[in-house]
Amino acid sequence: MSGPGPGPGPGGGKLDINRAGVAELEGALSGIGRRRARGIVRKREELKGFNSLDDLLHVKGITTRILELNSQRMTCRRRPSSEEAVRVSPALLGDSKALVPQVVAEEEDVSGPWELECAGKRNLGSGLEADGSQGQEEQEQEPVNSTACREPEEEEETEEEEGSCCSEEGEDGSNIYFYYTIGERWIDYLQRTEDSSFLRHVRPKMKRKSENGLDGRALSPGKKLCKGSEYSRTLGPCMPSPTTTFGDLRNAKAAQARRRRIPSVAPPPELQDWLRTFQRWSGPEKLLALDELIDRCEPSQIKYMMQVIEPQFQRDFISLLPKELALYVLSFLEPRDLLRAAQTCRYWRVLAEDNLLWREKCREEGIEEPLNLRKRRLLSPGFMYSPWKFAFMRQHKIDMNWRSGELKAPKVLKGHDDHVITCLQFCGNRIVSGSDDNTLKVWSAVTGECVQTLVGHTGGVWSSQMRDSIVISGSTDRTLKVWNADTGECVHTLYGHTSTVRCMHLHGNRVVSGSRDATLRLWDIETGQCLHVLMGHVAAVRCVQYDGHKVVSGAYDYTVKVWDPESESCTHTLQGHTNRVYSLQFDGTHIVSGSLDTSIRVWDVESGNCLHTLMGHQSLTSGMELRDNILVSGNADSTVKIWDIKTGQCLQTLQGPSKHQSAVTCLQFSSKFVVTSSDDGTVKLWDLKTGEFVRNLVALESGGSGGVVWRIRASNTKLVCAVGSRNGTEETKLLVLDFDVDLK
Length: 744
Fold this sequence. Notes:
- Helix content is 17%, strand content 30%.
- By secondary structure, the protein is an alpha+beta fold.
């Protein structure tokens, strides 16, 4: 097919179009129509040029299919002579005929070589006029780019005919390539020399409705504008250069990494012909050829292609984001993934070391203080290490020591002869043990030495509390004593109870004691005065809790009472248990009571109502601990259960092949672990969330034959166990296990 070009004379150009896509291309371009632009304001602006015909995807009406069908044959090049008419190759289009769409280019005031062409551009195409209108004599006599000689205020309303591509030879012998345009956008043009270097690139521009200009949002490759979109896109130049290839992407990164080559392989002689044949095919034909080629490749060859292709499409989006956004993205990672990300590159290492980022991770884990790094040797001079990160890492290593670290030989603290250790306190590096030998001993958890022996009681010590260097003890001699643990001095002896002081609870400078005389007393430990006496139980008081405002007590009369100590009145008597109450927990809102009747009850302290009855144990609940809504209970049936007191559900039962073989005597739990002791002579570690058995921390050789672990107390890094026996098979002593990490 042949047809007229854009116009006779030196402004002629040639547009070659693939036969299969010419109808779609004509429909997309000619259907756009003519529009009238009003209030045009042009200004001069220097822009970068486009590199490929792929930019046609930004045109409304130009689809990926049209581009694929025409990308290799749609070119814009100078005619060999001014007399030649613009023709489309008959070999490509057959016998059908179609006119090449044309466009009128209006230009703004430009200087340089363009001024020499002002008079010569009038005849770019026959019948084409500067404003696209007919019957106006003044405009017919004007050159196409006559607006270049006008002042902006003298511009008249103009029209443009859209959708075509043309080129011409300038008076200096260079090629002029016009850009496609669409909508109410003016043609962009580019003047090139013979070696294709840029001389000038001017983009006339009309005033938009939006004062901010064209919407800056870019379309992704392969997408087109929605039909009717008001956003007009400027297109790439119609140039003979091919589209950007994958090889261009690989070569662009040559400065960063040397391109991989197949070593010791000479290229076959047919390779270049084969590549040229491939290059001449259309987009769909190339895809078909690649599909067939992949089917004929061996797996090792496919693997090689993946190794070559995948790195070219990897983007370090974290480095491209502002630091604040990058840190926000990283904040969603788990600490383990943050540590892995820090190994990616130096910039990621800097981000992953952010102190505030690790502070939040620490708070999620319940770590309240950063690690002091003043004594730590910095591995990289000038690099800012995060104290919060080191605090997190230290805690992680401590947790791993608990879970799977080597169990070092414990410190053995021998004392109290063969007597029973009845109570145990552990705070900081100070351990206080009470025994039925009438004494208490103060130990150093670091050295294992007995620092003080507190002598003064005339009966066995059965209860104790400690805060800093103050120790309070209760005895069968019916008294309480206040001790200075540093000096071993007895500061006060508190008289008033008429029977054994069986339990107590310290809060601030006040301690509440419960006795077998069925009364409770509130004491000031600084003055030694008895402030209040609470009477109402009709049997021995076995357990007590005090939060500074309310006193809660459990007794052998099967009841739990809530007291207002200031008025010495009982606000609630909680009835429901059918046997003795042995254990209590109180968080200020909920009361949890454990009884010999095998049940555990959850009460509301304000209303006195029983919220839940926790059933599942088979015997006496001897010990409990409550944190937030999680309750852990130990029972004489050898099991430990984990409860949610808000729902009343049993979350886990710590049992199985590795469960205790006798009554659970004591327990402690943290955010990750539960530590339990038993009459079977073992101390076991369990996972709080899963209920799985982790390992034995202590296993007495005399376990099962009389060896007992009576009490345990744990801190973040240490575990203290009070062990002995009732038949002389195990010596009474304290075992101190250390799980701390060395930061040297």
